[in-house]
Amino acid sequence: QLQLVESGGNLVQSGGSLRLSCAASGSTLNYRAIAWFRQAPGKEREGVSCISGSDGSTYYADSVKGRFTTSRDNAKNTVYLQMNSLKPEDTAVYYCAAPPGPLCRDQNYNRSYLNAGGYGMDYWGKGTLVTVSS
User: Is the per-residue pLDDT at 52 higher than 90?
Assistant: First the structure.
């Protein structure tokens, strides 16, 4: 049973940076895609990024493209989300999640997992809070 634990959330000023970690246990992350989602108070869950488990391809929401970078270290069984140029609107609880396989795309519905509101994920972490002050 795969378990995911996020860490790295903190209070940071606008324009600052944070790196979130998603550490896995119970199973290897090799060949698994890992997605990051976030949910701000009163808002729907939003897909942020995804890294493929097959070829390491990365995908980002338009709202974070150019500012956020996701990477993986399979030896450490960990996925990272580097967040730069943070804005107050990035304030949210950030979750990592794992879909059933290595792709960032749900082939049953022919759509990116980032556009599915979290539908299709097999495993979720409990989240880490990121607060960006203006």
Answer: yes
Give how far Cα 107 sits from Cα of 23, 98, 100, 112, Å.
26, 15, 11, 8
3 state DSSP class of 15: coil
Query: What is the phi/psi pair of residue 89, to 5°?
Result: -70, -5
What is the mean predicted confidence (pLDDT) over 35-43? 96
Residue pair 50/113 in contact by the 8 Å Cβ criterion: yes
In terms of Cα–Cα distance, which of 122, 10, 99 is closest to 50? Answer: 99
Cα angle 53, 58, 61 (rounded to 5 degrees) comes to: 130
Which tokens belong to 108? 């049953």
Cα radius of gyration rounded to whole Å, the chain: 14
Percentage of residues in the chain having pLDDT higher than 90: 90
Residue 88 three-state SS: helix
The number of residues making up the chain comes to 134
Q: How confident is the model at residue 112 (pLDDT cuts 50, 70, 90)?
A: very high
